[in-house]
Amino acid sequence: MSKLSNISTSIFTVMSKMATEHNAINLSQGFPNFPVDEKLTDIVAQLTKQDVHQYTPMAGYPPLMNKITTLVAHSYQRTIQSETEILVTTGATQGIFSSVQALVGNGDEVIILDPSYDSYEPNVLLSNGTPVRIALNDDYTPNWEIIEAACSEKTKMIIINNPHNPTGKILTESDFEALEKLLEKFPNIILLSDEVYEYITFEQKHISVHTKPLLRNRTVVISSFGKTFHITGWKIGYVVAPEHLMTEIKKVHQFLVFSVNSLSQAAISEYLDIVFVDNIGDFYQQKRDCFRQLLGKSRFKLLPCEGTYFQVVSYEAISNENDVDFCKRLITEHGVAAIPISTFYENEKDLKLIRFCFAKDNATLEEAARRLCEI
Questions:
Q1: Is 88 helix (H, G, I), strand (E, B) or coil?
Q2: What superkingdom does the record give (predicted)?
Q3: What per-residue confidence (pLDDT) applies to 31?
């Protein structure tokens, strides 16, 4: 009997496979195609000859963990303890999985806000929990009254994703005020804040749970070096949580992967001494603005993009097809791969919206846009 009988192959896998088969430009899966910073690759080259090839301590490479405390302090003015409140993980996905497995039990309910990243629900199901999926408003803002109405004594966790994949929406101060009031009413609820795109924001800057004293003592924050430094294939992220939660998360982590790739940890530890995370948003804003300008003459309607490296567009003026079929035809007939937004909803809500990844070099964006403008 399948533990995930209602879960099929990820839409990211499906679309990337089709893109390869049809030699299409892959703007579907969220990975950059431009070179990694040479400063980082030079560090890796030097480290390969050093003694960094054996197991690190279970929670992470100590120098890297110390650098994470510095990074969080610099970015959010929060002081955390490296030994008790940090866990280095095999990508953010493993951090989310370990956290849900550790903190959600049989019969516990977990609120997930749709459209949502596709790993959340399977993680809850594998913990014998019950996903409670609530759709965001049509402008992708949360309806806190509906969310509060869904909370009960059974609610163990609320998962938020900020900046939000797939929509690029960012939570506001008023959202956090509502969230603080909600959790005050339900003191047993744990917040899991997926912030993997925290450094990829534009006009409106990212607000992290790290900056919210009323929330952070009951929050698990998920971050990703893969997203921040466009090294997604390294699969390296980190979790920050108060000690009473982290103790439980580490119990799962030690039997899942035990420790994360040692060379990657050592390299990122050194890289953090010379890289400026404050500039990452500016880099991707140029990508966003370039792609939006290139699509300006197309028949697609561009939705706002406040963060992440994803652009959501409406194809309502082009076709009445459902978004999955439209994306498949986009690959086979026009040579561009995208992700249908309906697959991020529990009920597969079809709003004629698709998602493009603009974390690509300019030549790729220009050719993709040329093809899209011909539709």
A1: strand
A2: Bacteria
A3: 84
